[in-house]
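User: tokens in, sequence out, please.
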């Protein structure tokens, strides 16, 4: 189900973990991978002087510079490229998220792969910028799934075999289920359907709080069966669970316990027309902490 992969990269160490996953997918599924890099942002209007997004330096843009950047990218990923049959390298100037979305509209990839960091190095767990505005904006508007690899542990790729679908029962989650179940069914994966009951929203001064939590867990389990299991026909390689707690913590814990190699979830369940709105905090925190890649599904996936 992956024949076209768009790998958006800064061609720096910040994207090395994402590169391992992207190229492994291309090799494993015999897909075409387009390595895409936004090399600079125009200093003004249609100026040929751009600010390099990696170094922050101003450079004069011409064909020679474009070719030089492409060759540098080719050299940087030489080890992965030599093992990959179908690949291409593209560069562009402009705002990174706009250019990634633009080429995605033209290329119509099956998935976009991105790193969680735009260039920061060091302690990943303590840097909120790792999700970055570029990923947030791409995830919000992309018409295909967006896979982000943030932590080094998530880049030890072995193909899809154990998938966790995390749901909050939103409309966006329904789209995420369609994708994750198709993936699990097509690739013969173990499929885990999971809901984290958010106890932070429960009034803890209620004398019947625990009884209420247990009742909500039962209702959530019924919802899992009604909304998802009922649609899987004869597919038997699944498990379902409802845990109470802080959602992003429980999702990460559950995925770790089940040795998941992929988490699939909706990127943002808040209905908003604001293109600058941040990722939903649950998705952002899962991306930040998960030991496996996370696929973010926009509710518009599949719509033309």
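Assistant: Sequence out:
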């Amino acid at each position: 189900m992956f024949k076209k992969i768009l790998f958006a990269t800064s061609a720096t160490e910040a994207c090395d973990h994402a590169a391992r996953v992207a190229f492994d997918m291309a090799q494993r599924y015999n897909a075409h991978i387009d390595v895409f890099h936004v090399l600079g942002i125009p200093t003004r209007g249609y100026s040929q002087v751009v600010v390099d997004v990696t170094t922050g330096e101003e450079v004069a843009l011409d064909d020679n510079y474009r070719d030089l950047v492409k060759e540098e990218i080719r050299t940087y990923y030489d080890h992965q490229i030599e093992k990959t049959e179908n690949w291409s390298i593209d560069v562009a100037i402009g705002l990174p998220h706009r250019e990634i979305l633009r080429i995605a509209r033209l290329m119509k990839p099956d998935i976009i792969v991105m790193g969680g960091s735009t260039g920061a190095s060091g302690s990943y767990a303590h840097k909120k910028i790792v999700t970055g505005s570029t990923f947030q904006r791409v995830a919000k508007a992309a018409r295909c799934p967006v896979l982000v690899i943030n932590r080094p542990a998530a880049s030890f790729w072995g193909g899809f075999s154990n998938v966790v679908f995390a749901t909050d029962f939103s409309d966006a989650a329904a789209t995420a289920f369609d994708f994750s179940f198709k993936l699990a069914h097509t690739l013969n994966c173990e499929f885990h359907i999971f809901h984290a009951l958010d106890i932070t929203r429960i009034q803890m001064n209620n004398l019947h709080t625990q009884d209420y939590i247990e009742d909500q867990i039962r209702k959530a389990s019924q919802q899992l069966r009604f909304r998802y299991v009922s649609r899987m026909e004869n597919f038997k390689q699944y498990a379902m669970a409802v845990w109470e707690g802080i959602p992003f913590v429980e999702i990460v814990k559950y995925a770790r316990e089940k040795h998941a190699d992929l988490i699939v979830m909706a990127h943002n369940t808040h209905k908003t027309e604001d293109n600058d709105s941040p990722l939903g905090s649950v998705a952002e925190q899962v991306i930040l902490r998960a030991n496996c890649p996370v696929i973010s599904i926009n509710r518009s996936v599949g719509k033309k």
